[in-house]
Amino acid sequence: MTRVLVVEDEESYSEALAYMLRKEGFEVAIAADGNTALTEFDRNGADIVLLDLMLPGIPGTEVCRTIRQSSSVPVIMVSAKDDEVDQILGLELGADDYVTKPFSFRELVARIRAVARRTAPAGGGATAPTGDDPTAPQVIGPLRIDRRTRRVHMDGDEVQLTAKEFDLLAFLATDIGAVHTRTEILENVWDAHWYGPTKTVDAHVASLRKKLGAHDWIQAVRGVGFRLEPPA
Ligand code: CA
Question: Distance between CA 88 and CA 73 in Å, rounded?
Answer without folding.
Answer: 18
